[in-house]
């Protein structure tokens, strides 16, 4: 495991949000899916989802897959995906399964994507969360930036907001401060806890 000051959790050194914005643009590039992921505004408020499901269930899973994919541990990734889909509500699990194809279609044929193609063949109906975490490592996105890109997609797709990627860093900043309410610092703190003891939280089921 890596601590909060290690290579896996990078800070936005400039403080202007540009690094996060570029990470989101890189992570979202080519992904055409427009439906909701685990979060759906009609089912629960975003603040509740962010606190109970994202930080406690999706984020530790995302971090685990990210680390496992760095070492090519496909069987561990598939096993973790099984557990995740049993932890989230049934409708959310269905949406996550249906959404993974968008990652495979966007990335599966590119150079250096053999691990993602392997996941697509062995588990084509895995969760979007798993596929996205794995593809983030192939694009060398640091864990913090990858997690921010993922939570952005959860909010954007689940809220039905038009347009997938902010056009400028200041637009990204405004969205996260006024709408997403998911600061880099709060995710960094949550990751620090999960990276040192995520296994103890594995049984949490979001409501």
List the helices and strands and how they pair.
Elements: H1 18-28, H2 46-70, H3 74-87, H4 90-107, H5 114-122, H6 128-138, H7 143-159, H8 169-180, H9 184-197
Instruction: Determine the fraction of residues in helical runs and give it as a percent range.
Output: 55-70%
What is the C-alpha radius of gyration, as a whole number of Å?
15 Å
Termini separation comes to 28 Å
- State the secondary-structure class: mainly alpha
Topology pattern, helix = H, strand = E: HHHHHHHHH
Strand content: under 5%
Number of strands: 0
In terms of quaternary structure, the protein is: single chain
Uncertain segments are 1-16, 197-207
* Average residue-wise pLDDT: 77
Sheet with the most strands? none
Q: Helical stretch count?
A: 9
Outline, from the CA principal axes? globular
What does the model show?
The chain has 207 residues and is an all-alpha fold. It is 63% helix and 0% strand. The chain contains 9 helices and no strands. The protein has helices at 18-28, 46-70, 74-87, 90-107, 114-122, 128-138, 143-159, 169-180, 184-197. Helix 2 (46-70) packs across helix 6 and helix 4 (90-107) runs parallel beside helix 6 (128-138). The protein is globular. The model is unreliable at 1-16 and 197-207 (pLDDT under 50).
Offer a quick outline of the entry.
The protein is mostly helical and 207 residues long.
């Amino acid at each position: 495991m890596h601590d909060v000051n290690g290579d896996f959790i990078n800070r936005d050194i400039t403080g202007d949000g540009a690094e996060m914005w570029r990470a989101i643009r890189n992570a979202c590039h080519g992904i055409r899916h427009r439906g909701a992921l685990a979060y759906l505004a009609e089912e629960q408020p975003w603040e509740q989802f962010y606190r109970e499901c994202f930080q406690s269930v999706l984020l530790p899973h995302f971090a685990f897959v990210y680390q496992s994919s760095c070492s090519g541990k496909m069987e561990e990734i598939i096993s973790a995906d099984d557990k995740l889909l049993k932890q989230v509500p049934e409708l959310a699990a269905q949406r996550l399964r249906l959404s993974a194809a968008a990652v495979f279609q966007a990335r599966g044929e590119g150079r250096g994507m053999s691990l993602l193609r392997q996941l697509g063949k062995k588990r084509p109906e895995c969760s979007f969360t798993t596929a996205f975490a794995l593809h983030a490592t192939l694009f060398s996105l640091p864990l913090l930036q990858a997690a921010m890109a993922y939570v952005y997609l959860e909010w954007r797709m689940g809220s039905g907001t038009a347009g997938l990627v902010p056009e400028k860093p200041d637009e990204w900043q405004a969205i996260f401060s006024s709408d997403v309410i998911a600061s880099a610092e709060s995710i960094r703190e949550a990751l620090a806890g999960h990276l040192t003891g995520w296994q103890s939280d594995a049984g949490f089921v979001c409501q």
